[in-house]
Amino acid sequence: MTDASNAPRLLKTVSRACDVIAVLDELDGAGVTEVATRLDISKSAAHSYLKTLENRKYLV
Model pTM greater than 0.90? Predict the structure, then answer.
């Protein structure tokens, strides 16, 4: 049995945002379709992540 009290609490949205940044770095930039395809997420989700990162000044 795993001791859940020692396991870190991870947020999926933060992990996914980091994945988006990693994809952009790997591809030296990418659009909605490339990010969505690479991460196997919907285009609308990819768009939301990209717009959020842009709004927070992580992307220009």
Answer: no
